[in-house]
Design goal:
Blueprint: H1 3-8, H2 12-19, H3 25-36, H4 50-55, H5 61-83, H6 96-107, H7 112-122, H8 126-140, H9 156-168, H10 174-183, H11 189-196, H12 206-212
Organism: Limnoglobus roseus
Protein name: SMI1/KNR4 family protein
Length: 215
C-alpha cells in the first residue's frame, strides 16, 4: 500500500492489512469501538463502554466479560426481532444492523484478530464501507508520515483540552485544541487540518492521543 492508497482508500481491508504488526492492540480495539458506537445506545448500561475502558486499562477482564454477556443478550434480542425464529440459520444475513450488532457484541471481549475478521465481513454494506476507512484515518493518521508533537506545544491549555475531549468524547472541541496548539507554536498543517475537519472523530484520534502521549 502506498501513501496515496491509504489517503484515498474506500475499503478498510488493505488498510488493516497494512497495519499488521504496526498498530497497538489498544488502537485497534478503540477503532472497533468507534466503528460500533452507532448501536451502543441499545445497551442501557455503563458496561457497554467497557471495551473502551479496557483498552485504557481501566476495567478488569472480569468486568469486560460481563459487558460481553450483556452485549450478547442485546444481540440475541435484535436477531430475534430482525429474523424471528430463523436467527443464525438465516443464510444471507444481509442486514447492516445485524452485522453491526454482532460486531459490537464481540468487540466487547474477543481477541483483536477475530474482530478484524468480523469487521471485514461487515464492510459488505456500502455505508459501513465508507465509515471504516475514515475511522481508521482518524485513529492512525497517515502511517507513511508519522507526526511528532513538539514538547513546546504541550502547554497546560492544550493538555487540559485534550484530556477533556478524551474523557467526555467532546470532539466538537477539537478546533479549540487546534487553536491552543497553534498558539503554542504548532504550524503543522496535518494536525491543524485534522482538528478543524469534519471527522469522524472517536476515542483514539491520533492528534488527541499524541497530545496525551497515548499509543
Amino acid at each position: 500500500m502506498t501513501e496515496d492508497d491509504w489517503s484515498l482508500a474506500g475499503d478498510p481491508k488493505p488498510m488493516l492489512d497494512h497495519l499488521k504488526g504496526l498498530a497497538s492492540d489498544r488502537k485497534l480495539r478503540l477503532f472497533l469501538c468507534g466503528f460500533c458506537r452507532s448501536v451502543w445506545d441499545r445497551v442501557p448500561s455503563k458496561r457497554s463502554r467497557a471495551a473502551e475502558l479496557y483498552a485504557d486499562g481501566l476495567v478488569s477482564e472480569r468486568e469486560l466479560g460481563r459487558a460481553y454477556s450483556m452485549a450478547c443478550d442485546v444481540f440475541a434480542q435484535a436477531r430475534r426481532r430482525l429474523f424471528g425464529r430463523r436467527g443464525f440459520a438465516w443464510a444471507d444475513r444481509k442486514s447492516e444492523e445485524y452485522d453491526r450488532l454482532e460486531l459490537f457484541a464481540e468487540a466487547a471481549y474477543c481477541h483483536t484478530p477475530m474482530l478484524i475478521g468480523r469487521l471485514k465481513r461487515c464492510t459488505r454494506h456500502s455505508e459501513l464501507l465508507v465509515l471504516a476507512p475514515n475511522t481508521l484515518r482518524d485513529i492512525f493518521g497517515n502511517p507513511f508520515r508519522p507526526v511528532m508533537l513538539s514538547p513546546s506545544w504541550l502547554t497546560n491549555a492544550a493538555l487540559g483540552l485534550a484530556e477533556g475531549i478524551y474523557a467526555d468524547r467532546a470532539f466538537d472541541r477539537l478546533p479549540i485544541l487546534a487553536d491552543a496548539l497553534q498558539d503554542a507554536g504548532c504550524e503543522d498543517a496535518g494536525i491543524l487540518a485534522h482538528c478543524r475537519g469534519d471527522g469522524p472523530h472517536v476515542r483514539g484520534c491520533w492528534v488527541v492521543d499524541g497530545v496525551l502521549g497515548k499509543g
